[in-house]
Fold this protein.
Amino acid sequence: MAPLTIYYVAIDDNGVSGPRIGCGDSLVATTTAPVRFTDQVGPSVGTLLANKSRDVGLSGLVNVLYQSNLSYVGGELDGSTITIYLTGQFMLGGVCDIPRAKAQLEYTAMTAAGATSARVFVNGRPIDEVLSLK
């Protein structure tokens, strides 16, 4: 039993509050109340995807995945890389939301798994391909 770490975005923070991502934003770790789990990745990613609010309380942080209809299917840790599998569809608010969404998913999964890199697949396709504007 422990809190889960979920990552959200500080828009226009320019890396002050956490890792710099996307369009001059920061990724910021938040923690939930303690929850019971056997595998931390599923509950962490599931909690992120279940949050259907854009604003994270009064923190000023934003969840760019709030409109997306995504579900966690599974994950596997191979060495220091966590791979997670999702189904569903992204509903994002513009080009700057692409790196934000990717970072929220990757960092949440990496922290939960204790990994240093992450790969995300959506409907069997790599996230970069799914979110590509080409």
Observations:
- The longest strand covers residues 69-78.
- The chain has a mean pLDDT of 96.
